[in-house]
Amino acid sequence: MPKLTVQNLGQLEVKVAPGQTLLKALHAQGNDWMHACGGKGRCTTCRIIVLQGLEHFGPLTEAEIRYRNKGRLQENERLTCQSTLEKGDATGKVPEQTKLPHLVYS
């Protein structure tokens, strides 16, 4: 099963089931993650900066393409509510703008 490591959350490791979004995987393991629109792909607050393993993600969704075209989602960023890990592990970090105040980031 693919694994997501969140570098600035104490190297948090999250197993991502086939077809499961990163956001659902994070929540399934009891982790808080910003998602202002409720995980519907209508904002970019759930984004993650991908440091390694971008090639292991599923294809961009329509929402992600829309935000890329508007310049609100960089080439190395994905929306956790939209993206899946298809075949391998990835490492990412929470952007400064979407950190939750009650969590400790490194």
TrEMBL record:
<dbReference type="Pfam" id="PF00111">
    <property type="entry name" value="Fer2"/>
</dbReference>
<keyword id="KW-0479">Metal-binding</keyword>
<dbReference type="InterPro" id="IPR001055">
    <property type="entry name" value="Adrenodoxin-like"/>
</dbReference>
<keyword id="KW-0408">Iron</keyword>
<dbReference type="InterPro" id="IPR001041">
    <property type="entry name" value="2Fe-2S_ferredoxin-type"/>
</dbReference>
<keyword id="KW-0001">2Fe-2S</keyword>
<comment type="similarity">
    <text>Belongs to the adrenodoxin/putidaredoxin family.</text>
</comment>
<dbReference type="InterPro" id="IPR012675">
    <property type="entry name" value="Beta-grasp_dom_sf"/>
</dbReference>
<keyword id="KW-0411">Iron-sulfur</keyword>
<feature type="domain" description="2Fe-2S ferredoxin-type">
    <location>
        <begin position="2"/>
        <end position="98"/>
    </location>
</feature>
<feature type="region of interest" description="Disordered">
    <location>
        <begin position="85"/>
        <end position="106"/>
    </location>
</feature>
<protein>
    <submittedName>
        <fullName>2Fe-2S iron-sulfur cluster-binding protein</fullName>
    </submittedName>
</protein>
<dbReference type="InterPro" id="IPR036010">
    <property type="entry name" value="2Fe-2S_ferredoxin-like_sf"/>
</dbReference>
